[in-house]
């Protein structure tokens, strides 16, 4: 019997193993490095696709966010540029249908700042108290008497005064 002995390194075996190595070795590396921003459809990158803390202020275009883009109760005074004061307001009686303006200390306030005032306790329904305008280190507050009689003096009224640069 004439048996022919096969060589273990047949041409077909060598070529198939070589093709498998090339496909697995370069194909995977190539696929991992082929996604470019032009390959992504607008609006298709979602929150789960972005790593934690990947987007910060340096990557957001100025003026591109609105109130709808900010979750409720996520911005605190420390996030704003301005001042926060807790003061006690006292003012004498105000004549009927008249107003008076006083300046209160607001260290750090600047001319042109926005000013917001809130009272800690109730005021008479015929009185109106509002922050008018910021000055250097002070804010003007207007007290208006809307009634037909002279108001009582306001003494030791706790207020919170916030200015925003």
Features of the shown structure:
rod-shaped; 13% helix; 165 residues; 31% strand; alpha+beta; Immunoglobulin-like; single chain; three-stranded antiparallel beta sheet
Q: Which shape, going by the Cα principal axes?
A: rod-shaped
How far the N terminus sits from the C terminus, by CA atoms, comes to: 102 Å
Q: Uncertain runs with pLDDT below 50, 5 residues or more?
A: none
Radius of gyration: 36 Å
Mean pLDDT: 86
Strand order in the largest sheet: 1-6-3
Run of helices and strands? HEEEEEE
Structural class by sheet pairing and helices = alpha+beta
Description:
With 165 residues, the protein is an alpha+beta fold. The protein has a domain of 88 residues: Immunoglobulin-like (Sandwich), CATH 2.60.40. Helix content is 13%, strand content 31%. The protein has one helix and six strands; from the N terminus they run αββββββ. The model has no long low-confidence stretch (mean pLDDT 86).
